[in-house]
Amino acid sequence: MGIVTTSDQTKHIFVDYYAPTNLNTSIATGGNIPGNIVQVSVQNVSWRGSRRSAAPRRGQPYSDYTVVFSAYSSDILGGYPAGVNS
Predict the structure, then answer these.
(1) Comparing 60 with 39, which gets the higher pLDDT?
(2) Total domain count for the chain?
């Protein structure tokens, strides 16, 4: 949809890993191992749009607006694929 572009990814797209015993502090390096929690987020993305005004003022039937949103998803990392180990 073009809301987040490749050039935006370093300031809007984040991947964090957490140990199941400490969900408050992300693991700085080496967190991509089975049993840990992975959280992928898209943060502080601005989207501009227009909508038809219910009561147009001075002949302006549309009004512009900006929405800023963030989305988060997390899951427990599964095991390594067959034939791969740590």
Answers:
(1) 39
(2) 1
